[in-house]
Amino acid sequence: MGFLTESVDVDCGTDGVPVSVRWRERNYLVAEGPVRWYERRAWWSEDARLPKDRGIGAVDQQMWRVQVQLNPRSELLTLELVHTLDTGRWRLLAATSASGIRVVRCA
């Protein structure tokens, strides 16, 4: 069984780091330096057999934690995002307000 997630649009700078996120028809700007790490996705639960030609991006995915805001005076939101490398797809896993209130948890 996979995770329930929300699709988001992410714009990245030339270095591949997110600079803005479009979520629920609102544009958020990245306010603080994002944090990135890699995780192995559970491809065996999603695909019956992983084709040999799919490569490294099929099993590893980028995980990002970004702090965003609608404008410089709005509250910060911390978004947990996953970027699947072989498809280029971005998904939202969770959003938490600066006060620690979980806005949404998709998993």
Could you characterize what this model shows?
The chain is built from 1 helix and 9 strands; from the N terminus they run βββββαββββ. A hairpin with a 5-residue loop joins strand 2 (9-12) and strand 3. By secondary structure, the protein is mainly beta. It is globular, with a radius of gyration of 15 Å. Strands 1, 2, 3, 4, 5, 6, 7, 8 and 9 form a 9-stranded antiparallel beta sheet that branches. The longest helix is centred in the middle third of the chain and has 4 residues, at 43-46. The model has no long low-confidence stretch (mean pLDDT 83). The chain starts with 5 loop residues before the first strand and ends with a strand.
Order of helices and strands: EEEEEHEEEE
Span between N and C termini? 11 Å
Shape: globular
Count of discrete alpha- or pi-helical segments spanning 4 or more residues: 1
Computed over alpha carbons, the radius of gyration is: 15 Å
- Total beta strands: 9
Furnish the topology, listing elements before pairings.
Layout: E1 6-7, E2 9-12, E3 18-23, E4 26-30, E5 35-40, H1 43-46, E6 60-69, E7 77-84, E8 89-97, E9 102-105
